């Protein structure tokens, strides 16, 4: 890691979990001083580079209280970097007095809404002719009945606002296998206040997922682009990558061209991560979604020369953004070991040879949270897992004793 230059304008990292940790490490890699606004006890607080935002008790959540917290921060100037969708949306419409002190490299509020709202996003993709899964907005029961279930193959319901849906249900989507199930699932979720869509499932294994990560600056150029291929995921249906591999841009040339055309069409500015799935039925890359903020694997890109957090810092301050090489190292792996073990547990490794190959893969990979020079966050996660396991065992033992006594 580079030595932090205390004379530079600092970054305030907003978020929690691995994404906030990744932003903090990427910023520190560039030698930029940083503070973090995250929930108490978050794994980011165990990082050697963690410093709480001075002058305010703030967990990083957006809103009027966050505006008051920012006003109380005794920093003359700082750059804000978002680690969650709602934070990115909030930063796009900061009050003028805060914008004078706190710089942000972000798209307009209207563009954030268009890309985060899955219904608006689907309509825009349709309008500019970018391949995507067939998607149907479910605003009413008549919309539900109009979905052509017979021609779609596998279908799932997804939210218009994915962050709230995931927070409440702990999932990105819900499978439906018949029109009756579509009607009943929609009715249950609609009653909970969710705005919903039905989408066809693009077939194929996790390795057909590609991510185009990068940065588009205020002038409309792309100083950083980085492509990852998903190798494994957990959970298997609507999960996140547990093992990713860097691949050269030309291996996903169509996806790179599509995301550039999309972002150019709306005048996007800032950090982004676009997910695609290559459709085995016709070989086309179909765009799934675009994250309009730093993503979970942002540190992985930074460690291989594409530091979009440093780019956002420079762009926010009006400085020239140095372009990263499009020839970054290919074949580099990043593993989220805990979720990768879960993924492999669902598809057991057969034979000692396969196990040794898997172990060798882990040995040469970048690990998602663990770092030898910053072990605190991983140790925090390990302690939390051990406490949860011990608690489950105590509960099971208590239940067993109660059954015996009954």
Question: How does this model look, in words?
Answer:
By secondary structure, the chain is of the alpha/beta class. The chain contains 15 helices and 15 strands. The strands form 3 sheets. The chain has a 7-stranded mixed beta sheet with strand order 13-12-9-10-11-14-15. It has a 4-stranded parallel beta sheet with strand order 2-1-3-4. Helix 3 (85-91) runs antiparallel to helix 5 (109-116) and helix 5 (109-116) crosses helix 6 (118-128). The longest helix is centred in the C-terminal third of the chain and has 30 residues, at 376-405. The radius of gyration is 22 Å and the shape is globular. The model has no long low-confidence stretch (mean pLDDT 91).
By secondary-structure content and strand pairing, the structural class works out as alpha/beta
Gyration radius, rounded: 22 Å
> Tell me about the biggest sheet?
7 strands, mixed
| Strand order, largest beta sheet | 13-12-9-10-11-14-15
Strand content: 15-25%
Helix content: 25-40%
Shape: globular
- Gap from first CA to last CA: 60 Å
Secondary-structure element pattern, one letter each? EHEHEHHEHHEHEHEHEEEEHEEHHEHHEH
Task: Give average pLDDT, whole number.
Answer: 91
- Which stretches are poorly predicted, pLDDT < 50 over at least 5 residues? none
Quaternary status: single chain
Number of distinct beta strands: 15
| Tally of alpha and pi helices | 15
